[in-house]
Amino acid sequence: MNQLFTSVRVGRYELSNRLVMAPMTRSRAGNGDGVIADAVPDYYEQRSGAGLIISEGVYPSASGKGYVSTPGIETDAQIAAWKKVTDAVHAEGSRIFMQVMHCGRISHPSIQPGNALPVAPSAIKPAGQTWTATGQQEFVTPHALTVAEIQDVIADYRSATRRALEAGFDGVELHAASGYLPEQFLASESNHRTDEYGGTIRNRIRFVLEVLAAMVDEAGGDRVGIKISPEMNFNDIVDEKPQALYWELVEELNQFSLAYLHLTRQGTPEMDYHALLRPRFKGPYLMGAGLTKETAEAALQAGKADAAVFGELFLANPDLPERFRLGAALNTPDRTTYYGGDEKGYTDYPTLKVTEAA
Ligand SMILES: Cc1cc2nc3c(=O)[nH]c(=O)nc-3n(C[C@H](O)[C@H](O)[C@H](O)COP(=O)(O)O)c2cc1C
C-alpha cells in the first residue's frame, strides 16, 4: 500500500498526504524591512500539493537575522505580506507552519541592528565565513547573552509565535538545528556558560525547553513543532556527547505534546538518530534529508516515520506530489539561484503540465 498519499494527523491537523516541504531559506525579502517579495506567495502556492509546508526560516526579531534579504515576523508590514502566503496555501487546501529561526552567532555586525555584535550563549567565535552585503566576511566573536537578555530572546520567540498565528500560519516550528541559536545552547563546544543555561546537559537544554514553553503557551502544543539535526556539525557546531544530549532532550520534549518532531541528518554519522530518537518521541515524527520517493515510502512502510520531508526536490519541482504519483521525471535544482535574485529559479520551475504543453 502506498503510504505517501495517505492522510496523517499532525498536531491539530489532518494532513491530506505525508509529503512535507522542508524549510528553505530563499533570501527573497527586502534587506532593509524584512518584508517578503511579491513573488513569495506564488512560490508557496505552487508547492501546496504538500500535505504540510514548513516556511523558510523567519527571524523573530532583528537580532535573530543571520543572512541578507531574509524575512522577519516582527512588523505589521511583515505580517501583512505573510498573510498573502497563508491565504494562498489555504486556498489550495494545504497547511503551512512558520519556521522561527534565530541565527545567534551565525550572523555578522553588518546584518545586525546598529551594527551590534551577534548574540550567543558564550563569546565563542564560530570558524568560517558568512555572506554579507559586502561579500564574504569572517564570523566574529559574539556577545554572550546575560540571563536577562536570554529572557528577552525567549519573549521574542513568544511574540513571533503570536504574530505568525496572526498572519494565518497553522503553527510554528522551532528551528533548533543547523548550528543556529538554540543548537548553540545545546552543544558543549559553543556553550561554556557556568550558570543554569550551561554545563550539564540538563542546563544546556534549558533554553530550548523555555523557548518551547513560551511558544506552546501562545499556540498550544498541537501547533508547535521542532527541528533538530544531531551530529550534523553544520555551522561549526560540535557536542561532546550528542547521543546523550538528544536522548535527554527528546524525552523532555514529550511534556509539550508537540505537533511533531522533525529530524534531519546529513553526512553519515555512525549513529542512526532516526532509529534512536523516533521511539523516544511520543508524537508524529517527520524524517528529512536526502529522501527520494522510494526511500521515503520505505521508511513510512517500515513505520520509521509518519511523514517525509523533501527540500531540494520540492524547490525544483513545484508539483512534486503529482510527479511522485505518476512516476514522472524530476526537474534538476539550480543551485546558483537558491539564495536571492528574482523569479528565476524561484517561481519558474515548470510543472509537468507546462513541460508537456511545450
Ligand atoms: C536552499 C536551501 C535553504 C535551506 N534553508 C533552511 C532553513 O531556512 N531552515 C532549515 O531548517 N533548513 C534549511 N535547509 C535545509 C532543508 O530544510 C533540508 O533539511 C535539507 O535540504 C535536506 O533535505 P533534502 O535532501 O530533501 O534537500 C535549506 C536547504 C536548502 C537546499
Distance between the termini: 34 Å
Q: Can you identify the CATH class?
A: Alpha Beta
- Principal-axes shape call: globular
Can you count the helices? 12
As for the number of domains, it is 1
The fraction of residues in strands falls at 15-25%
The CATH homologous superfamily name equals Aldolase class I
InterPro entries: Aldolase_TIM, OxRdtase_FMN_N, Oye-like
Cofactor: FMN
Family: Belongs to the NADH:flavin oxidoreductase/NADH oxidase family.
EC number: 1.-.-.-
Textual characterization of the structure:
By secondary structure, the chain is α/β, with parallel strands linked by helices. It has one domain (8-357): Aldolase class I (TIM Barrel). 31% of the residues lie in helices and 16% in strands. The protein contains twelve helices and 14 strands. The chain has an eight-stranded parallel barrel, surrounded by four helices. The chain has a two-stranded antiparallel sheet with strand order 1-2. Helix 1 packs parallel to helix 2 (76-91) and helix 3 (147-166) runs parallel beside helix 6 (206-219). The site of flavin mononucleotide has 22 residues, from strand 4 and helix 10.
Could you name the key traits of this structure?
single chain; 358 residues; alpha/beta; TIM Barrel; eight-stranded parallel beta barrel; two-stranded antiparallel sheet; 12 helices; 14 strands; binds flavin mononucleotide; EC 1.-.-.-; Aldolase_TIM; N-ethylmaleimide reductase; oxidoreductase; OxRdtase_FMN_N
